[in-house]
Design brief:
Layout (H helix, E strand, L loop, with lengths): L2 H28 L5 H8 L18
Amino acid sequence: MDRYSFLRELADSWGLLALTLVFLGVILWTLRPGAAALHRDAAQVPLRHDRLPADDPTKER
């Protein structure tokens, strides 16, 4: 077996397994119990300070 075929088989089998495990790890990390407050805070970022007028004199320019 030449080197290319060996590396191709390795990437097809173990590479797929490794990428699948990384994908599942990211999903589980996102859905962990302590992350709800962080996600809620990140979801509110676009809505912060939306009540200030556009020409607020107290804002530094």
